[in-house]
Amino acid sequence: MLFIEQEYAFRLSIRAVGDYLKRWGFTPKKPIKRAYEQRPESVKQWIDQEYLAIEKRAKAEGSEIHWGDETALVNTDVRGRSYAPKGQAPVTMAVRDTRQKLSMISTVTNQGKASWMIIDGAFIDQALKH
Fold first, then answer.
1. Would the pTM count as exceeding 0.70?
2. Which residue among 22, 41, 52, 115 is least packed, with the fewest CB closer than 10 Å?
């Protein structure tokens, strides 16, 4: 409400703001966290240009293509809600912290075969040890 008051010299209650957002088609949702480093344009370009050659080679060799990701397993949870238009998730930016955590790497193939591994610490630390 402070923003509205600063920008428009007009005070609204929290309930009134919520009512307006609802009328405009916004619904309360938990935000999606996205990394600041994310570059969707580069990913699209890679898929459009590089992936086709990889897919062709994998098929010729009888190989699987694994799509992988790394994530952290922590004992804390993200609380809070925000507003976004109906059918869209709100987004918040996450900053890396120094908590103790486990790391998990997982892959899935185009056929749905899943694999995963959990390690103590970060993957970069494990890679430097070997």
1. no
2. 41
